[in-house]
Amino acid sequence: MKTKPLHRLIALSLLLVALPAQADDAEDAQRLLVVPFPITEPAVGEGLLAGLVWMRDGPPLVEGPRKPQAFGAGALYTNGGSRGVLAFDHRAWSEGRWRTTVIAGIVDVHLKRASLVPGRGELAGFNVEASGASISAQRGFTGGNSVIVRLFNAETELAVGGRVPDGVLEDLGSDVVSGLSLGWARDTRDDLFSPTRGSVASLIATSQSENLGGSFDARSLSLKWMGYRSLGPGYVGLHALFDASGGNPPFYLRPFVSLRGVAALSYAGERVVSLETEYRLPIRQRWDVLAFVGAGHVRADYRGLEGTSNVQAGGIGVRYRPEQLFGLTFGIDVAQGPDELATYIQIGNAWR
Question: Which CATH number does 4-347 carry?
């Protein structure tokens, strides 16, 4: 297994996380938080990601939402058997013109099921052990525009508890996931967690290659758009996502339909479209109620297995916005998808 690139990247990541924060403004609000982040993703079960997080205000921007800075570490646990430890650092430099994000972790993720193609080749009960790190930098420009570069490396080990369909056996075992992402984004929202106007658009191209230290070659393209505007007494939002992948990635790294009410990896393929709209109605100074509905389409062609599928989901939710907590919102969503009723505990915006 190729370990040297991973070890160097993890060492650099931990060094960057350990660097002392450099506030652009000594008067910025800052706070040390004990954060219990509930895990409610149907694919992995219920659990908790908890740890210490130090947050402070980010520098004000000419256009786009003011984004807090944070670094911390924690551990995760789910009743489905997933475990892990993570550390991260997200900070602004040069009065907000640069932003860097570093993530390093060791996880053992147990998933209930995944679909190789819609309606065929379903895997029941598998787990992925992974240790790795990611380093990204984002350079902001006028008009809310920015360019993004990200380098990542991870070592993974796959095990499947149930029957393995023909053609997937070569995925069992170890992989080195190593790649580079380049992208563009534009963010004109008026608020990071509870936008009432503006939009976000991004285009990210990713290459995973043996030349970068990986064990396979793959490529992907992700196009995302979110928009918000007022409508009557409330606000309407639209989230559109298109993902495409090619090459020879492990099946669990392919894109999948991303909707509340649809379990991760249950509708995966090489071409995926997800579309969700939401209406948020303020009912008190710090309380909102919302309703959402979405649809997805997936087209898969994985090692001789082909298929397409359409999926719909929808639900309702509530949000609470505490005073003087960096604009964070807390709430709960209940969504009905094609397979089951799902409940999500939300911290921040459901669309990321």
Answer: 2.40.160.50
